Amino acid sequence: MLADDFTGYAAHAQLNTCILPIFVYGSEIWCLTSTLEKKIDALDNWCLRRILHIRWTDFVSNDVLQSRTGQPLLSDTIRQHRLSFFGHLCRADTDRDHSRALLACIWGPPKDWR
Questions:
Q1: If you ran DSSP here, which 8-state letter would residue 7 be given?
Q2: Which of 68-71's residues contact partners 24+ apart within 8 Å by CB, and which partners?
Q3: What is the pLDDT of residue 2?
Q4: In-domain check, residue 35
Q5: Burial class of 11 by CB neighbour count within 10 A (0 to 12, 13 to 18, 19+)
Q6: Residues in CB range of 71: below 8 A, 6 or more apart
Q7: Comparing C-alpha atoms, which of 22, 20, 78, 13 is closest to residue 52?
Q8: Domain total in the chain
Q9: Whole-angstrom distance, CA of residue 96 vs CA of residue 109
Q10: What's the pLDDT tens digit per position in 53-72?
Q11: In this structure, is residue 21 part of a structural domain?
Q12: Which element (helix H / strand E) includes 21?
């Protein structure tokens, strides 16, 4: 595919199929800080600029880049994955190990903890 043929949809599709699964693997358990979120969003914008062949001298703002591709911020995608994972943990049976670990983080470990 030529660089002139790349539209926002093609960049979105390439990012979602090639880069996003590799990057968000295991992101449900990351401890996100504001500094880390800024670095993640910078990586996301860098990848989009490379896919769309936008040079740094073109002065395209990040907002224009996001609106052109229709791609949400990567930090928002990670936040959505984390909330989905938390919902999975909350719905789990209380006898499961991961549910017991979550309850131990909230209320402290039980007396019969092994």
A1: -
A2: 68/8, 69/8, 69/11, 69/12, 69/15, 70/8, 70/9, 70/12, 71/11, 71/12, 71/15, 71/44
A3: 46
A4: yes
A5: buried
A6: 11, 12, 15, 44, 48
A7: 13
A8: 1
A9: 14
A10: 888 888 888 888 888 878 88
A11: yes
A12: helix 20-24
What token pair was written down for 41? 């969003």
- What domain range includes position 15? 3-107
88 in a structural domain? yes
HSE value, Cβ hemisphere, 13 Å, CA-based, for 108: 1
Ranges of the chain whose pLDDT falls below 70: 1-8, 11, 114
Amino acid code (one letter) for 28: E
17 domain-assigned: yes
66 residue type, one letter? Q
The CB-based long-range contact list for 52-60 (8 Å cut-off, 24+ gap) reads 52/6, 52/11, 53/3, 53/6
What contacts 87, CB < 8 A, 6 or more positions away?
A: none
* pTM score above 0.85: no
- 108 phi-psi bin (left φ>0, alpha ψ -120 to 50, beta other): left
